[in-house]
Amino acid sequence: MAYQETLATAPSYAVLAGIGMFAVVYLAGITSVSGGILAGVLGAGGIVFTLSAKYLHGGDYYPVISGILLVLIVVGYPEGITGRLHRLLSRIRPGERRATGPAWTSEPKVPARRVNGDPLFSTIGLRVRYGGIVAVNDVTLQVRRGEIVGLIGPNGAGKTTLIDAITGFADAEGTVRLGDIPVQSLRPHHRSRLGLGRSFQGLELYDDLTVRENVEVGSSAASRFPAARRSETAVLTSVLGLLELAPVADRAVATLSQGQRQLVSVARALAGAPAIALLDEPAAGLDTSESRWLGERLRSVRDAGVAILLVDHDMELVLDVCDRIIVLDLGTVIAEGTPQEIRDDPAVVRAYLGTPHAVTGGM
Ligand code: ATP
């Protein structure tokens, strides 16, 4: 508009014209870049407006038509026209099928353990550099269906960076596979739709939204898949129930305790019905009994069919719930094994766990 006006002064932008413009922007879709572009095409002075004024002589009716469309869109498709188009496109795009199928059932049950031999998820030679620092160095690991795998290591070992690399938040060299699908070239939201869920160390919750709304944000990642969409509400209810968040579902997360906020972030990672959930320090800020309780919930999640890669410094929790543990130090895997093997591994004790003698010696 500024370009058309050739002069950007306040009188050019009258209040009513501004409201009309806002209506078109909302109509097109305010949640995406493509919505902004479509608004430019539809808006006053745009191609659609110009053609309809020229050939249909509909210029005078333009505000009326856009007003009616706005009401319909607000009621039917709050994400706007492009939100609806994105959903339609993703349904017909072949590459957007979930590799692993929705692993989460609408009613988490506790069947017999079923660790499946084929890797559900793997990384091969994953490497992340930040300038001169190699934060993740040639990491190859696998997680099978039905497993909780712990990822431990001292501060700065590269655990969060590894999760960032797997989920697409950090640039990495190497291969990341979900089932037999290589996902390393996909963007984070595509990886999420294929079944990679994650939580964040800093929680990244929306403080002014309710617990339910925060968790719903996670479920929208899976909502483009018919099977997941059908069970979306059931999954949401079951995740809130599983983590005992149902009683606080309508409270703003800003009013919750740190422990409850941690659970909301785990619930959001699970709400997308992931095949594998990568949880970054979910027990941070929990006391011993809360952390034990969380461990039981994580077992239920695993038994419902979701594999878990668990990063945490709470060794009691990790040693208790994990089937296998991988130890990182300076970005490199230094050990891998059962909790007992890890507890007894001298390299791990030296790099991370420490001994009462070492503690005494250091004091
Ligand atoms: P913690 O247990 O404290 O969370 P961590 O094992 O998760 O630690 P990372 O946060 O992954 O470790 O950090 C690994 C290394 O990469 C550290 O040396 C850190 O300083 C460095 N690093 C992480 N993020 C960045 C970044 N964005 N830019 C530069 N260096 C980074």
What does this 3D model show about the protein?
The protein is an alpha/beta fold and 363 residues long. The chain contains 17 helices and 10 strands. The protein has helices at residues 2-5, 15-28, 33-42, 47-55, 62-76, 80-92, 159-167, 188-194, 211-219, 226-230, 232-242, 258-271, 288-303, 315-321, 339-344, 346-353, 356-362, and strands spanning 119-130, 133-144, 148-152, 173-178, 181-182, 196-198, 276-280, 307-311, 324-329, 332-337. The strands form 2 sheets. The protein has a 6-stranded mixed sheet, with helices on both faces. A 4-stranded antiparallel sheet has the order 2-1-4-5, with helices on one face. The longest helix is centred in the C-terminal third of the chain and has 16 residues, at 288-303. The radius of gyration is 25 Å and the shape is elongated. The model is unreliable at 99-113, 221-225 and 358-363 (pLDDT under 50). Bound molecules: adenosine-5'-triphosphate. Adenosine-5'-triphosphate is lined by residues 130, 133, 135, 153, 155-161, 201.
Q: Please give the count of helices.
A: 17
Largest sheet entry: 6 strands, mixed
Q: Outline, from the CA principal axes? A: elongated
* Fraction of residues in β-strands: 15-25%
Q: Work out the number of β strands.
A: 10
Helix content: 40-55%
Order of helices and strands: HHHHHHEEEHEEHEHHHHEHEHEEHHH
Q: First CA to last CA: what distance?
A: 69 Å
